[in-house]
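Handout, section B. The chain below has 737 residues.
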Amino acid sequence: MTGSPTTRLALWSLEHPKRVLLGWFLLILWGAWAAGGLASHLRGEIGGISGSVSDRVMQRLSRDFDFPFAHHLVVCVHGTVPDQLTRTSAHLSEVLSAFPGAAGVRELPSGAPGWRAIAVGLKARTVEEEEALVQPLRALLARETPPGVEALTTGTSALSHDLVQHGSSVTRDCETQILPFLLLTLMLAFGTPGAALMPLLSGAGAVVLAMGMLDLLARVMPLSVYASNVATMLGLGLGIDYSLFLISRRRDELAGGLPDPLLRATAACAPIVTTAAGTVLAGLVVLALLPIDECRGMGIGGAVVALTSWMTSLTLLPALVAVSGSFLDRPRWLAGRVQGATARWERRARWIVSRPVTALLVSIGCLLVLGFPALGLRLGMPEFNLAPRSLESVRGMDAARLMGHSGAMLPIHLMVEVPPRTGGILAPRRLDGLSSISGWLQRQAEVAEVQAVVTPRYLARIALAARMLGARGLQERLPQEARWFVSRDGDSTLIQVIPRHDLTYGEVRAFAGKLRSRPWGDPGALGDARIDVGGPAAIELDFISAARSAMPPMALAITVLTALLLVAQTRSILIPVKAILSNALTVLAAMGLTLAVFGHPVTAAWLGLPASIPSVPAVYPIMLFCLLFGLSMDYEVMLIGRIAEAHEAGLDDRAAVITGLGGSGGIITSAAILMAIVFAGFAATDLVPVKLLGFGLTAGVILDATVTRLFLVPSLMVLIGRWNWWPGKIRAVRDGL
């Protein structure tokens, strides 16, 4: 058995199909069993950026303060009978005070008839611990809330918890809804039920095994709920994509009357699939190495499913095809209907080849026009009103906004810290500075309330006590709620800013950015103090900063890895350069089209959104680039491989392009349609991040398979001519034959 290790593995699977099928049957059974518990191990949010300013504030607050509401939830209680509502609210406050995970409970004033609000501080040090308390608290409320009264648990951690559960159900629903469309499209592409079923089985096997592996990983490391969404979305697409290569190649070999058509097709496709999977994997590995936990989780999820898709294509699929035999081409009258596709694509290729300059300019112009809106890219999480309205946390946020407490769920934390052994933060000489900071904050239009130890109103009283008792004595004699805002070592104080309830999340984030960029100067005797800004909005700012910093090295790393893989495949310099530039144009166009569609109220409404999206999550452009750049290489490898074969057979450059495009155009189009169906299914969900990514990938694969791969690349190869293959000789794609 000759050829590369991957080719030998694929050929071994042909020789021992029963062993391979038995092994895969056991793996898929295990994967299905393990995947059943995946949702309980995934998380809606991973937390802050390790080492960032917001992470430092949260760590300091959790470790050194007794502030019970550093991690908190809000319970919104609704009832139509005033007396019953009052009694129930008081009863629930008592019950919640006895809840083992509660660090503190207080009733909040309500500005809406029929509603009450209760803030519940949590005994949690991390976002993961905070989310873990949501379900037990809800179970307690369900037991203690009488009929006729509704208790809604909300807050950022409750929203994260709900997104985990909803995201898992979205994945299952998408799988169920898109499978019939995939099967119908495969039937149209191959003409027979047997041939149509093979890619679907391979893709499903890859996804099930990947979900089981993700469950193992989620038990030992934090993984975002979007890891499972990405794994399903990518796994179905890749598994079907790679399967199409083998099924269509086998049919071509069979039509040519050559001996051992399945053997020849497997030997030809194994290196192509390996290179294609390698380009996808390169981007996902880079994504998994980024210092952003959300990206890391999605990168790991995508990398795992890319590996399982590659495994199924080299082992499970050849074994399935081997045992199926002639069943794949029955009934023959259906199979005959799809013959002649090569001739049709060759006629289209001749039209393109005869007008290479026109085809090149039109295709580049089209991609640039579509990509123009990407220049106005704005990063930031979508507003909470775009989250699914069926979630309890979202309905609770609406109630909190009605009562005027939505700002309490997005507090901004100012941590003022002085060096150790310098008298403490409550030293008399520092009180004027703390008072001036609190006073300035209270005067800002975005602020509803400032909670701090030292405010202008109580400055004189605090200053007198500090002079009499000293900083440490003052701290010990403060009321309990005031001591919450001073660290146990006396060197730091928390100033908590509650934004106005009518501010959007974007406006709160902008105000947090304003506080970070403000030159505090020397407020009183705080010249030696360090002032950090934390809280949910500040965490988002750190995400945006980390994403912007990560983009250039990430793009460079993926570009270099992809170029090396293509150089190894083609022994050419210009083909990898051309592929990278054309893929970059495709990603730009897909991102621009996504921003234009989601950023306009009319088109956003067509997609089922109540409002346009002015900004996209910080991880979105990173995810789109990593996934789409790798997926685009699948079609590049397929097309270049066919053109190289024709060139090696003695055809000139123009004839080789015509023959290569004729042999691959149909399969590239079919693969793109199938990929688009998978991604469009996720674009139809009500989870905005998943909808954005699904739409962007749908647009990207369609543009890549039409404008880029069928117009831009062939026309450019015709114009470059024999320099396409410089400086090496063409290496046979049929590795081992």
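Note. Residues 335-339, 730-737 have pLDDT under 50 and may be disordered. Compare this with the example in section A.
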